């Protein structure tokens, strides 16, 4: 699990650096009892979601596999994710299995910008 979470974070940061043209980014990783939550936000240019593939090969909106790799890792960990790219990009990921009693309160179930 740790390696997959690390690779998810790595791909998110790489996408911000390579593609977003952002001047600001936020990454918050919380391990709560029973779950791991990741929030990645940037103020970049966002992206257009790719249409369904006609050749059967999944790619992200730029012709690569980065977002598909993130989605696949989250699926392998039985998690959920949400991507919003209307103004900048926000990625929210929840993965079950944070160690019980590990601390790190996220607060309410509402997603918000990290302070």
Features:
115 residues, alpha+beta, Heat Shock Protein 90, four-stranded antiparallel sheet, 2 helices, 25% strand, disordered C terminus
Task: Give the SSE layout.
Elements: H1 2-20, E1 25-32, E2 35-42, H2 66-76, E3 80-84, E4 89-96
Antiparallel strand pairs: 1-2, 2-4, 3-4
Helix pairs in contact: 1-2
Characterise this structure.
The chain is an alpha+beta fold. The chain has a single domain (2-96), classed as 2-Layer Sandwich (Heat Shock Protein 90). Helices cover 26% and strands 25% of the residues. It has two helices and four strands; from the N terminus they run H-E-E-H-E-E. It has helices at 2-20, 66-76; strands spanning 25-32, 35-42, 80-84, 89-96. It has a four-stranded antiparallel beta sheet with strand order 1-2-4-3, covered by helices on one side. Helix 1 (2-20) runs antiparallel to helix 2.
Concise structural overview:
This protein has helices spanning 2-20, 66-76; strands at residues 25-32, 35-42, 80-84, 89-96.
Strand order of the largest sheet: 1-2-4-3
Sketch the major β-sheet.
4 strands, antiparallel
Q: What is the string of helix and strand elements?
A: HEEHEE
- State the end-to-end distance: 27 Å
Rounded mean pLDDT is: 79
Report the total helices: 2
Report the CATH superfamily: Histidine kinase-like ATPase, C-terminal domain
Give the amount of beta strand, in percent. 25-35%
Overall tally of domains: 1
The count of β-strands is 4
């Amino acid at each position: 699990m740790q390696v997959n979470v690390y690779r998810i974070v790595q791909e998110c940061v790489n996408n911000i650096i390579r593609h977003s043209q952002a001047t600001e980014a936020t990454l918050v990783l919380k391990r709560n009892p029973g779950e791991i939550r990741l929030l990645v936000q940037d103020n970049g240019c966002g992206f257009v979601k790719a249409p369904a593939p006609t050749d059967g090969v999944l790619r992200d909106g730029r012709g690569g596999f980065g977002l598909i790799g993130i989605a696949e890792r989250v699926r392998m960990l039985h998690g959920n994710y949400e991507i919003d790219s209307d103004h900048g990009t926000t990625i929210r990921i929840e993965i079950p299995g944070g160690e019980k009693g590990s601390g790190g309160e996220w607060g309410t179930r509402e997603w918000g910008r990290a302070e």
